[in-house]
Amino acid sequence: MADYTFYTNPMSRGQIARWALHEAGAEYETEFVDWGDKPDAFLSINPMGKVPTLVHHHGGHDHVVTEAAAICHYLAEASAPALLPDDHERADYFRYFFFGAGPLEQAIVAQSMGWSVDDPQKQGMVGFGSYDRTVDALEAMLTGRDYVCGARFTMADVYVGSQVDWGIAFGTLPERDVFTAYAERLRARDAYKAAKKIDTDLIAEAQNG
Q1: CA–CA dist 89, 30 (Å, integer)
Q2: Same domain, yes or no, for 169 and 140?
Q3: Residue 141 lies in domain
Q4: CA-CA distance, 111 to 119, in Å (whole number)?
Q5: How far does Cα 10 stand from its chain's mean position?
Q6: Sheet holding 53-58, edge to edge
Q7: Pick from 71, 93, 86: which is nearest to 26 by CA?
Q8: Is 102 in the same domain as 170?
Q9: What is the pLDDT of residues 158-202, one digit of tens each?
Q10: What is the four-CA torsion angle of 195, 200, 206, 209, rounded to 10 degrees?
Q11: Neighbours of 140 (CB within 10 A)
Q12: How far is 18 from 28, CA to CA, in rounded Å?
């Protein structure tokens, strides 16, 4: 048995977790989750029926991890400590990891759904303020550095980078130079290319099948 069982659908945030698995060099088996026919075995470990879901078979126990950001960091802790932050990188690592999983994703989803809070007095209630403010904050964060923690790639770049990569590809983020350059650096990584090819091939197979 592989160290991990990975429940996913290629047309989902599972692409983030697959990239993280490849960056971590983890041995995993894939379980495809059909949107319309989720198996009971899957729902028993994740009653919400969400993908990605990761099961780590370790120490005689099965450890279930959900939420793409949590999966990314868990994989770094469990299988790829080189992708964890150094002491001086820790603040940026966690600050922007949680920024990506919280305000940035909320802002992108809200913008895509046509939701907005125009009253400045109420913008604080939604956690990200406004879409424009969040995008500007992301640009400021990435300006003058190659990766989230500076010059070195860490697991935080898998999650934040996926937000930027998808945002550019699907038009949910503006094509600012700093975003495009960051995405291009990530797309050149061997683990990104290997994981992306698997999911792209699975999507093509499903569409042609």
Answers
A1: 32
A2: yes
A3: 84-191
A4: 16
A5: 13
A6: 28-32, 4-8, 53-58, 61-66
A7: 71
A8: yes
A9: 999 999 999 999 999 999 999 999 999 999 999 999 999 999 999
A10: -120
A11: 10
A12: 9
